[in-house]
Write a structure and sequence with these properties.
Layout: H1 3-36, E1 38-41, E2 44-47, H2 51-64, E3 68-70, E4 77-79, E5 84-86, E6 89-93, E7 98-102, E8 105-107, H3 109-121
Amino acid sequence: MDSGIIIAVIGTICGIMIIVLIGILKKRKKGAKLQSSAVSFGNVTANRDAIVERNEAIEWWIETGKESALCDDCRATLKKGDGYMVGERILAIGDEGQRITLSPSLLCYSCFARYKKAQQHE
């Protein structure tokens, strides 16, 4: 074989390998961005706004050792690791403005989304 052909083949193979490697690195960078903006545990993924609530829920699951629990608002069953832990909340009762302070609550995704939406409107 001619040495020029061998060099051309090696150059082509190296070029293809570089292109493939660049593609892999770009995918890893995109994946890293996604991982840094989301936390996943159990069946729940949370964005950056909910990281604190997810971390507190995870700590609660670890501390209690429970395999399941109920959402403190809608009573839906949560599997181990699911949900969001929100701090003390104030519940207004009736027209007279009576208020009850609720202890920290474990919420399912739907109830947590309503809670966050209500917080935005306050």
